Amino acid sequence: MKARWIWLRPSGWSTGWAAEVALAKRLIPCLDVDGGRVVKGVRFEGLRDAGDPVEIARRYDEQGADELAFLDITASHQERDTLLHLVEAVAAQVFIPLTVGGGVRDCADVRRLLNAGADKISINSAAVARPAFIAEAADHFGSQCIVVAIDARRVPGTDAAPRWEIHTHGGRRPTGLDALDWAERMARDGAGELLVTSMDRDGTGLGFDNELNRAIAARVEVPIIASGGVGKLDHLRDGLLVGHADAVLAASIFHFGTHTIPEAKAFMAAAGLEMRLDPVQVEP
Amino acid sequence: MQTLAILDYGMGNLHSMAKALERVAPQARIRITQSAAELRAADRLIFPGQGAMGHCRAELAQRDLLDLLPELAREKPTLGVCLGLQAALDFSEENGGTQGLGLFPGVVQRFPTGLPEAPGLPPIRIPHMGWNRVEPTRPHPLFEGIAPGSRFYFVHSYYAPAGSPEVAAVTHYGLPFAAALGRDGFFAVQFHPEKSQQAGLRLLSNFSRWDGASPASTS
Known about the structure:
The complex is a heterodimer of chains A (284) and B (219).
Chain A lengths: L1 H7 L8 H4 L5 E9 L2 E6 L2 E7 L1 H11 L4 E5 L11 H8 L6 E4 L5 H10 L3 E4 L1 H5 L2 H10 L4 E9 L9 E5 L4 E6 H11 L3 E6 L11 H10 L4 E4 L5 H9 L5 E4 L1 H4 L5 H10 L14
Parallel strand pairs in A: 1-4, 1-12, 4-5, 5-6, 6-7, 7-10, 10-11, 11-12
Antiparallel strand pairs in A: 1-2, 2-3, 7-8, 8-9
Chain B lengths: L2 E5 L7 H10 L4 E5 L2 H6 L2 E4 L5 H10 L5 H8 L2 E4 L1 H4 L2 E4 L5 E2 L4 E7 L17 E6 L1 E2 L14 E6 L1 E2 L7 E6 L3 E8 L2 E4 L7 H13 L5 H4 L1
Parallel strand pairs in B: 1-2, 1-3, 3-4, 4-14, 5-7
Antiparallel strand pairs in B: 5-6, 7-11, 8-10, 9-12, 12-13, 13-14
Helix pairs in contact in B: 1-6
């Protein structure tokens, strides 16, 4: 078996993966929610309506989404609480992991969202404002439910040796923090997973910033979710194969009917990636 | 009408479990409780848990559950989930070493850093997070109707070793580990059935009807 792998690797882990690896790569549709509706913008601006969150969540669950992400994208800058009742409504119908984020400021917020039915809580701005929050939350609730969202933008003029800077508040506020150092620190403090969004790519349809994801994946042991920029199925595949992510997150291509979840999964499986295909066949 | 009690000892999110049980056992009373009287009166018991082992033991001790829980697990069908599996072993290496409930033999260990997922592949990520295949090692009523190799959702950094006679299912993540352990009326799973869509709901449905008899206990 070993010899077979050595032979296969130069061609880019194309075939045989499924025979050796059992853990599936994850496909995570993301519901950006604003004012109780699913919306989607370009580079975090210019929002378009994409429908009712509960209805969309149910559809994605039926289609075999591996998890759902539910981000209240305006919560942070408008100082609003995430819409707990929407989380409750989604959680009551969907029996796959649900990550919820947006405006999470302290352990009380985490508690409220978990009680509403979230499984993992995504934290961004509050971690930058008070880095000790991540260690507190991980200690209190366990790393398994603490996701740190890293919104990073390339520092202009660093193309040869790229650097990325952390932004907060839906991408509007630069922080001066280096994204790779920050990722390492957050993982050390107890983040169970990192949700890495390229601000340069989000909503553009140009694909993930795979260089960013690969650089972070090399620095931390925890799983990485690639986010921001998916416009076609190749981008999802490349996020896993080139960007070394463990999960890929996308919004627009599913919301606006460009592709379905089963299409995306079949495409990635055909590229040799281990995927959870049809929802499991269970006898009645 | 049967009562399903979910043990509430301050370790993690119990609402997902309650919702899933409501779905599969709409006739049952679902109680999230830490009251010894309610736990004793229940027909079936769920011992969930997320977080760290040291914290788990402290919370159980604070509620006088360290002796009661093993006693109840011997009396009525009991399902341990995630940390509820790990806490049932003799010992865990987490938090500098934590004594377990001793319902199953063995030591819970952390996945080794740098372990390749398979020969020639990159190292595993820790925690083990996502949908992995579960292979039952023997027939068990809780896996009835679920195809071998079905995927369930996992999230954990520590694991119970495969290899003891109590192992009921195995999963591979760089190494084989116990995805399920069972002895008599106590069954424990490392994955989260309440988050594992159809396969998970089927397992919970099987549990809601299980009388606590298992092939291993009679062989």
